[in-house]
Amino acid sequence: MEAPVDRRFHFRCNPRRLKMKFASLPSILSVQRCLILSDAAMENVVDGVVKGPVAVIRHGVLGTQNVAGKDKDIKNPQRTESAKTDPDATGMQVSFSMSTILLKNALFACNDQNFRKSIDDFVERFADSGELREVCNRYARNILNGRWLWRNRILGQKITVSVKCGEEREIVQDATRRPSDTFGDYTEQEKELGGLLFKSLTEVPLKFKVSAMIDFGMKGSFEVFPSQNYVDNKPEGFARSLYKRNMINRDDLIRLMRDENPDTFMKDIIYMGDAYIRDQKIGNAIRTIDTWYEGGDDARPIPVEPKGANIETNEVKRENNSLFGLLLDLDSLTPGVDRPNPDAMFVLANLVRGFLAGEKNEKSESSGKAGRRKERKPNQPDLLEENA
């Protein structure tokens, strides 16, 4: 009688060590993010001095509608929120904090010890590699070029980004002079920050303070761009909600909106809170380093995502070379000789990013609730969550 075959993985012999190729992912696989980011505060700068937070105000606007027919009313009255700098502002400061955890601690949960060892071996194999250094240099470029400022970059006649690590060390660079869509030819500042990121992922966790000073080149109250909130089923006539902190008390807001006294009427313009850029949006910007997908060398970089999902083009760039497929044959990835291994850099970047994935086995599938069952292709991992 033949012995039962373990279909979880098969072995491939190698003179140096035993390699393993898995048939499927573990049912539990969780990798925590290695870069922990704060929200970014937006503050007014008056004649070079920081003068308090940028305000988010709620107000009414009379827009237009692009509708056909002469009998249609083209007026479109709405209530919306805007973030405006102080009338005396000559610029704006945007700043956030960042800390790290060691890459070897990224794997949070895994219920397959062979798979866990494969990931641990991969991290050890690339702990002092050119692949990890390149990933760190790309992160450093996207921090120092101010990509994480998003639309606010267009406001600056000059943008200076500074990164402090500890009390004394500070790296400063003119963000307007650095590319945002290509990598390589790194400046000394980018190499220095890349080196600190490398150290913080492999030796000792570090803390960073990142600030961008945006010089408008003129004085005035300008609209700036914090994150927007997604609001499901918005009330009719409400245009958008902005991300803010130190918000107005809800009871006070209701009282203002109900006030019909002409002597105290204030609902024409209401101070809603302080403008911020969400940590998720910052993380998305600085991890826009993936040019390793098919055709990526000749295209714009996309954010590191397990399947290469790109909202900008509404495409999945890695349908045939996803993280999940690479994880199944992780032992075959080795540091490059002539140039860094692109697949290994993609896996490393995902370990820094963090993700939660796994495959349901037959036992867990049969014991689950009928309403939660769904058909899927064999060996196709279920993406349970994407940490941004």
UniProtKB/TrEMBL annotation:
It comes from the Bacteria. InterPro entries: CRISPR-assoc_prot_Csy3 (IPR013399). Residues 69-87 have a biased composition (Basic and acidic residues). Residues 68-90, 359-388 are annotated as: Disordered. It holds the Pfam family Cas_Csy3. This is Type I-F CRISPR-associated protein Csy3. It comes from Pelomicrobium methylotrophicum. The gene is csy3.
